[in-house]
Amino acid sequence: MRGVIIGMASILLAAPSVGQVMPGPFDHHNQIVCADQDSAVALTAAYEDKPDQAEELLARLAKHGLCERAVFSGKPSADVYGSKTQDRRRDLHVFEVEVTKGLVLKGKTKVFMLLHIFHDNEV
Q1: What whole-number distance in Å separates Cα of residue 96 and Cα of residue 36?
Q2: What pLDDT, in 10s, does the model give residues 39-68?
Q3: Is there a smaller number of Cβ atoms within 10 Å at the N or the C end of the chain?
Q4: Domain residues of the chain, as ranges?
């Protein structure tokens, strides 16, 4: 029983799929991040329901400096939102992350990162 945590654009690590999964520190990964928890949760819900429209929402949020795709290093500190998708093979999560390297949202050191968690043991 193993699951794989996958960011919107990259693989982070392998971990058990039982219970809450907290990813470890990561180095130089492309992720979607938001400046505040509410924007991150709204964007995560949009990816769950209508992925095409979520890309449009991301573009609008990026225009206002609230969310962006960024390559950075960081350390997740809290799982602030989780939602199971309909196919039950993946969860969508928002993690509070401390930025340890890289420029994110014009210098923010704490951001909210979107992740898909895929479970290979569920069909």
Answers
A1: 9
A2: 999 998 888 888 889 999 999 999 999 999
A3: C
A4: 3-17+26-119
